[in-house]
Amino acid sequence: MFKKVLIANRGEIALRVIRACKELGLETVAVYSEADRECLHVRFAEDDVCIGRAPSRDSYLNIPRIIAAAEITGADAIHPGYGFLAENAEFAEIVQASNITFIGPTPGQIRQMGDKATARNVVQRLKIPTVPGSPGPVESLEEALAIADKLVFPVIIKAAGGGGGKGMRVATDAEQFTQAYNLARQEALAAFGSDQVYLEKYLARPRHVEIQVMGDTHGKVMHLCERDCSVQRRHQKLIEEAPSPAVDQTLREDMGEAAVKAAEAISYVGAGTVEFLLDEDGAFYFMEMNTRIQVEHPVTEMCTNFDLVKEQIRVAGGEPLSLIMNGNRLRGHAIECRVNAEDPARNFQPAPGLITAYHPPGGPGVRVDTHIYAGYTVPPYYDSLLAKVIVHGNTREEALARMRQALDSFIIEGVTTTIPFLSRVMRHPDFVAGKVDTKFLEREPQLLKEQT
Ligand code: ADP
C-alpha cells in the first residue's frame, strides 16, 4: 500500500479526499495554483506545492508540474478527484510510468469508456440497450443528415470525446441540423482536441438515472444502486437524489445488472458511474460511463453508509472490495443540492467575489461538503461550485423537509448564490411529487426568477 497521496485537484473534492486519506492513516499533498493560496486544501494537507498560475492549463492541467510535485514530496499515489485530469488516460499513464499509483481505473479502461462512440459499441455487444443513433462517429454532413432523417428529428449531436455538456447540440429539423452539426464539431475540437461526433435520437422527456459501480483488482464488480439527476440546466446536473422516485426494485436490479455487466466487460477497477436515460414507460438506455468519482457521490454514501472515496483508495492499493452489496442495502432517502456562485436570473452567470459572511446548516441528517469560509474569495478561474448540501431522511418526505430547512438557514453573503432558486425547486409541486425529467427547468422558467 502507498503512504502519501497527492490530490491533483482543488475545492470541495480536494478536502473530501484529504479527509478520506486521514481516516486511512495516509499522508496528503495539496497542489494549488497562485489563485488558490488561501484554499483550505492547502491548509489541511501535510505538504503543499504551488504548481503554477491561475488558469487551469498552467496549473491543475499541467501534467509535468503535478508529477514533479509528487516526486519532490515523495507522494506515491495520486487521486485526481473529478474534472481536470480525472478522465485523462495519458495522465494516468504518465502517473503509472513514474511509479506512482493512480487512484482510479487503468489508462486502457479510461480510454475505452472515454470515447463515447466506442463505449456505445462496447455495451451494444453486451446487449445493453443504447439510445438509437449512429453506429459510430459520423464521417460527413451528408452521412449525418441521412442518419438524422432516419432517426426522425429531434436528434442530438454529441462529441465522441465529450463531457460536461460540451460539444453537444440538439437539432429539431433538417434546416437547423447543418449549423448544429458544425457548432458541435467546432466545440468538440476546441474542448477535446477531436471533432469526431455521433448522433442520438433526442428523447422527449427522459429522466437521467445513473448507477454507481465499484470494481477491484481481484475481478469483482458491484453496484450501489441508482442516483436520479434529472434536474438539469443545459444538460448539467443541479440536484441529485437516491433512490430515484421513478425506479422500483425490479428496474433497479435490471439497471444494476446492466451497469455491472458493462463494468465487468472491461474488468473495471475503482469507482465508476454508468449513466442511463430512462423514458416515460420505464425503458432505459445506456448513455455513457464516467470513470471517476462523481460530484453527486454523497447521495449514494448517505443511503448506503459506505465511503466511496475510502474504497477508491483501498482498491487502488490492491485490496479486495470490502463488501459486496449489489443494490440491497439502500436505507432512507438522500438529496443533494449544488450551491453555485451564479445568478439564475441572469442565465446562471458566474458571480465570483469575496464571501463576507458564512454559516452552514446543520443538524441530524445534514452534510455540507464545501471549501468556502467567511473571508474566502471565490476566484473567477474555476467552476462556481461553492458547496454541496446533502440531506438524508428516513423517507423522501423527511429528506425534502430537511433540505428546505437546511437551504433556508444556509448563510452565504457577499456573492450571489443559487440557494433561493434551489429552495424554490424544493417546494415545486412536480419536484415534491418526484415527477421531473431533464426538461423540467425549461418548462418552468419562473423558477429561475427572483420572487418578490
Ligand atoms: P456529458 O458527458 O457532456 O455530461 P451526457 O451524454 O452525459 O453528456 O448527457 C448529459 C445530459 O444531456 C443528459 O443527462 C440528458 O439530460 C441530456 N441528453 C443526452 N443525450 C440525450 C438524448 N439522446 N436524449 C435526450 N437528452 C439527452
What is this structure, in a nutshell?
The chain has 15 helices and 22 strands.
Bound molecules: adenosine-5'-diphosphate
Number of strands: 22
Count every helix, treating DSSP H or I runs of 4 or more residues as helices. 15
Based on CA atoms alone, the radius of gyration comes out at: 21 Å
Distance between the termini: 57 Å
CATH architecture of the largest domain: 2-Layer Sandwich
Total of domains: 3
Structural class: alpha+beta
Provide mean pLDDT, rounded: 96
Which strand order does the major sheet show? 13-12-9-10-11-14-21-19
Instruction: Give the CATH class of the largest domain.
Output: Alpha Beta
Helix residue percentage? 25-40%
Tell me what the structure shows.
With 452 residues, the chain is an alpha+beta fold. It folds into three domains: 4-103, Rossmann fold (3-Layer(aba) Sandwich), CATH 3.40.50; 132-201, 2-Layer Sandwich (Dna Ligase, domain 1), CATH 3.30.1490.20; 207-448, ATP-grasp fold, B domain (D-amino Acid Aminotransferase, Chain A, domain 1, 2-Layer Sandwich), CATH 3.30.470.20. It is 33% helix and 27% strand. The protein contains 15 helices and 22 strands. The protein has helices spanning 11-23, 40-44, 63-73, 89-97, 107-114, 116-125, 141-151, 174-192, 249-265, 297-304, 308-316, 396-408, 419-425, 429-432, 440-443, and strands at 4-7, 27-33, 47-52, 77-79, 101-102, 155-163, 166-171, 197-201, 207-215, 221-233, 236-242, 270-278, 284-290, 333-340, 342-343, 349-350, 353-354, 357-359, 366-370, 377-378, 385-393, 411-413. The strands form six sheets. It has an eight-stranded antiparallel sheet, with helices on both faces. Strands 3-2-1-4-5 form a five-stranded parallel sheet. Strand 10 and strand 11 (236-242) form a beta hairpin. Helix 7 (141-151) packs across helix 8. The chain is globular. The mean pLDDT is 96. Adenosine-5'-diphosphate binds next to strand 6, strand 8, strand 12 and strand 13.
